[in-house]
Queue: 4 jobs
Job 1
Amino acid sequence: MTTAPRLAPSRLMLAVGIMSLAGLGLTGCILKECDSEPCFPYLRAELDRSSGWEDGRWRIEMVVDGSVFGACEIELHDSSSPGDDECTDTLELRVDRDANAITRVTALLLHDGARPTEYTVRVERDGQPVAEQNFDADYETYWPNGRACGGGCDQAEAEMSF
């Protein structure tokens, strides 16, 4: 009967340590320094108005489960420079423009992680309905600091052309 060679205790500890470090390196956890960039769960709708954004008072609402969950109003002047917007604390409005006109408006609804499955975007100009569209919330998990660091959140995006 033959016996396996025995390692000295110090070499055995060294071998176990090397194997442990190699295993950690394969999982991406070896001495990984994680950033602390926060992640915010949201529903986002990019609003693309093919005929342009005319002057007037625009209202954009996001509706979840039949209730207005967030709304913004913005006054547009000269079709190229937005005035101040007034938004509820859950909805943000971003206006992209080039030198001549507003090219896109993005509505970003921050939510508490409840993951609504559907939402509706409504657009009005000067109190008159312009567009309304329902969306299924197709979530993707975003990891701002990398998956190994945790802290991911669910985000859904849609595009609305009218």
Job 2
Amino acid sequence: MRKESWGVRRLALSGAGLIAVVSLLVWVGGYLEREDTRARFAAQVQAWAKLELPAVENEPGPYLRGQLVVVEAAVLDWKPTWGVVEIQPARLDAGQFELPSHLQADSPEEVGTVVVCAHKREPLDLEYRLEGAPAGSGIRAFRYDIQVTLYDLERGVCAGQTTLRGSEPQDIMEIGDTSVGEPPDVQAWLQGLPWRPAQAAAE
């Protein structure tokens, strides 16, 4: 009975170890693939993040064209000594890897629409306090907003812009924490927009 029990235990341990190894290999493979994608787009990301194109005319609303690249805009801050400074350069947004495969551009040449996301933490006009905490120990609360701007490279226009608002944070937090709500769902908004094929692909 003991031998059989030990054999079952060894089999279970071997199976768990195999699952752990496979999971690690999958994670490493995904990480390397993401890094390779970032490298392919690195030369264009800074220019895309600073695009300024005229607003599209005679369109009922925002739209997408062709395949997409999602760029996170540079994070800026104001310092009394230096003025506006860049504390984080523009980079490929994590949302690029969440796009459906048919919308993901694999190279800069395939990009039809540049999606620029400016992440912001908006302070709320209230304090979140812990129950029983002394006066003045309130926790500042922030809402996570993302301004999304779409650029149609084929037409050379801004195809739309909106600010998506995140949720408000919960009102019970630990003292010393910063209370920030959940970010908005950019993917859901993008996938709900009208899509048009790139002209080159349509011909």
Job 3
Amino acid sequence: MNLSRRDLRRKAPVVTWKFWVWLAAVLALSMVALVVWLVRQSGSDHAMEEREAVRRAMREAGLAGAEWAFLHVWDDRVWVVLGTDGEGVRWMVWETPDGYVRERESDLVSQAELRAMIRDEDPERKILRIVPGWFQNEPVWEVRYLTGPDGERQAIDFYSARDGTKLKTYDLPGL
């Protein structure tokens, strides 16, 4: 079969399957880059605030380094920073609106000790989290756990970080 002159001069189509594959790959990579950027942007304010809290704790409380920082929000927004001084002593620093409270970690009730105290009090209690915080103008441990006969309601207990005494319980009936 002989091709006509018109068929011989016919150009290849501009939009081939390779073009569509390339376009789909570019769009997919663009979407992934956009999602990564959005996720990083959403947490950047918190991360910046955390870095600033650590810097303030190092400057104001004399820490040489920080292991972690935690934002506790109840009545006030309070940053809790765990760090070490130049001699290697571990300190917990609470950055309150009124100033800084610095306590030697060894002088406080540890998270493990508090967990053991709670287990002794009620072995069936399912603890969801224990975090450091600030309540009634003193350092505390906030303990969130499941309660009730069916074990589906949540409650929060505040324990003094200094001696482990229970300060207050909040029942969360909607959760």
Job 4
Amino acid sequence: MKRFLMFVTLILTLSVTSCISSISSIAGSAVKSSKVGNKMLIHSSPRVGDYAVYKGSSGQVKMTMKITGKSGGLYVVTSDTGIDISGQYISTLVLELHLDRGGNVKKAYVVESSGKTALQIAGKNDEEYVGVTSLSASEIKEMDVPSKVTVPAGTFRVTPLTFKSKKKGQDVRIVNLVNRGVKFGYVAAYTYNYSDGKYDKVQAMELVEQGNKR
């Protein structure tokens, strides 16, 4: 999820500063030079065809995750992130992740028109390493994190999971609101900046659709 949010930010920036036709190649080059997060959530009783669609708070950034197959006992998940402009969807980054039942990423690829390129998976000492933790009661209160949230896909009871990182000298906290009954577990993800003694919510991705399509 950390890698997902980092690239959502990248795509938002590129949509303003670059020609649309160049975004995909820039995003692909960027992910090749870094590492993919080692873990992501996977829901109960996963089946080929299960999918979830998320949109950013701007309404333009869209991400679809789907189980497209099984290979060697692993679930093959395709993550397609792009921009929806005036009803036209432009794909900017496609990843193929091979997960075990626990959501551990065993193989990862970036998918481009020229083919697939294998990616490195983050280890414990890497910035991209995903170490999920729970929020304390005081943090939940301070950040005003809800126990129930309404998103375009419906209303869900949620549990907050988080990790902390540094961004441009600021403390950044990404809070994932999780419901294990939802496809891929994620209901929403909120990014908070901590400055001047308080947290400010600056970005959100929310579940807009889920289901199963073969």
